[in-house]
Amino acid sequence: MLGHPDHNHSADSVTLQRKIETVIRGLFPDYRRGIIWCTTFFITLHHHEKIADVYVVGVPDIKYGEELCAWVKMKPDQTMTEHEVKDFCKGNLAHFKIPRYVMFVDDSPMGVTGRIQMFRMRETSLKALGLHEADNIETA
Prior knowledge:
Layout: E1 22-25, E2 34-37, H1 39-45, E3 51-61, E4 65-74, H2 82-92, E5 101-104, H3 118-129
Parallel strand pairs: 4-5
Antiparallel strand pairs: 1-2, 3-4
């Protein structure tokens, strides 16, 4: 399948997918780069009984190129800490897929078609986390 990571046995084929759906973690040669598909989080974290909705975006990082930021919307009358979200991920995801940042939100930015605007989520995350200086690094 064109665009799938196994298409030509190279991480370069990921660029055929929408970049916003992947996070490339690590500034190593392509064969050692950690490519993380954001759908992994959607599926995993939706199984938590306190979480109503979750989205994950890549935010810039000086050391790794990009890190993960999870936007978590809680179910009514439920609360969670960042530590609880990360602990849940530790039991269900590989260690390099655990989000470094967790933001608890009431709503996610949507366009007129009802789709999530990931670029606005990334911009909001940069402001909230103070990562503007890391935003100038070049990623894949």
